[in-house]
Amino acid sequence: MKVVFHKNFKQQYKKLRASEQRKCDERIALFMQDPDYPILNNHSLGGKLKEYQSINITGDIRALYEVVSEDVALFITIDTHSNLYS
């Protein structure tokens, strides 16, 4: 799967601690190999975020993305669970 990053994702990524950025890089690499890799907990969202899907980066950090085509995912944002879903 090819991954593209939205401007907002890049801005939020820069705000993460170095350890969180490394974990994000690892999880994105896993996602590119297999979007359904179990540790990612890849799932569709509902409500106002129903057009997006989410993967786990750390215990509290999530990355939201949109499927653009069969083999392209646009990562929209990354933040803590409470900030994304409040």
Descriptive account of the structure:
With 86 residues, the chain is α+β, with helices and mostly antiparallel strands. It has a single domain (2-85), classed as 2-Layer Sandwich (YaeB-like fold). Helix content is 35%, strand content 33%. It has three helices and five strands, in the order E-H-H-E-E-E-E-H. Strands 1-5-4-3-2 form a five-stranded mixed β-sheet. It starts with a strand and ends with a helix. The mean pLDDT is 97.
Any chance you could write out the topology, listing elements then pairs?
Elements: E1 2-5, H1 7-15, H2 18-33, E2 43-44, E3 53-56, E4 61-69, E5 72-80, H3 81-85
Parallel strand pairs: 1-5
Antiparallel strand pairs: 2-3, 3-4, 4-5
Judged by helices, strands and strand pairing, the structural class is alpha+beta
Query: What Rg do the Cα atoms give?
Result: 12 Å
Distance between the termini: 29 Å
CATH topology label? YaeB-like fold
Largest sheet: 5 strands, mixed
Number of helices: 3
> What is the H-and-E element order?
EHHEEEEH
Would you count the extended β strands for me? 5
Total domains: 1
The CATH top-level class label: Alpha Beta
